[in-house]
């Protein structure tokens, strides 16, 4: 690398603080990935009979009231909110709906799957290992930081605030 000098100060700064230049792309990646995941998952539960049945049986097993209605409601929330999140339209509302969906899933189905009698540290380890907990954290982050520049919300805000 003759003739090229490494900017050590900038390299250390990047290693310690990251880069705001790339933050919008990271936000886009997280938002679209989560949105697609929930849109596809919701669509599969709504439009594939065997998946609808599995969802219904899961809700019956964990004693959710009105399981037939809730099967379609929860699946619809995942499909619609995931679709909205993918394009970044009313993102905070979509995140809030999916956050509640995941909190209910954690409380009704996932907590009971954690083995009893664990030490607090091992219980926390198992709890934080649940994907639903990670989704909740991502939704909180997206609500607080916004959907990013590459979203319908960003375009709308710019248009409406002119």
Give an overview in words.
By secondary structure, this protein is mainly alpha-helical. It is 78% helix and 0% strand. The chain has 8 helices and no strands. The chain has helices at 8-17, 20-47, 49-61, 67-87, 91-110, 120-129, 131-145, 152-160. The radius of gyration is 20 Å and the shape is flat.
Average pLDDT works out at 94
Q: Quick one: overall form?
A: flat
Order of helices and strands, N to C? HHHHHHHH
Structural class: mainly alpha
* β-sheet strand percentage: under 5%
Helix content: over 70%
So how many helices? 8
Main beta sheet? none
Q: Could you give the distance between the termini?
A: 48 Å
Total strand count, please?
Answer: 0
Oligomer: single chain
| Unreliably modeled segments | none
**Spatial extent as radius of gyration:** 20 Å
Give a concise summary.
This protein is mainly α and 162 residues long. It is 78% helix and 0% strand. Helix 2 packs across helix 3, helix 4 (67-87) runs antiparallel to helix 5 (91-110) and helix 5 (91-110) runs antiparallel to helix 7 (131-145).
């Amino acid at each position: 690398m003759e003739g090229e000098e490494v900017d050590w100060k900038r390299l250390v700064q990047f290693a310690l603080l990251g880069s705001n230049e790339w933050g919008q792309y990271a936000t886009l990646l997280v938002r679209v990935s989560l949105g697609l995941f929930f849109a596809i998952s919701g669509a599969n539960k709504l439009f594939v009979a065997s998946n609808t049945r599995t969802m219904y049986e899961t809700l019956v097993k964990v004693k959710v009231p009105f399981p037939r209605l809730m099967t379609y409601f929860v699946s619809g929330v995942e499909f619609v909110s995931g679709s909205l999140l993918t394009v970044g339209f009313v993102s905070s509302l979509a995140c809030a709906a999916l956050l509640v969906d995941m909190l209910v899933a954690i409380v009704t189905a996932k907590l009971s799957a954690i083995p009893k009698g664990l030490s607090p540290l091992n219980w926390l380890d198992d709890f934080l290992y649940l994907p639903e907990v990670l989704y909740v954290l991502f939704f909180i982050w997206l609500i607080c930081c916004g959907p990013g520049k590459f979203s319908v919300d960003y375009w709308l805000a710019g248009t409406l605030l002119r």
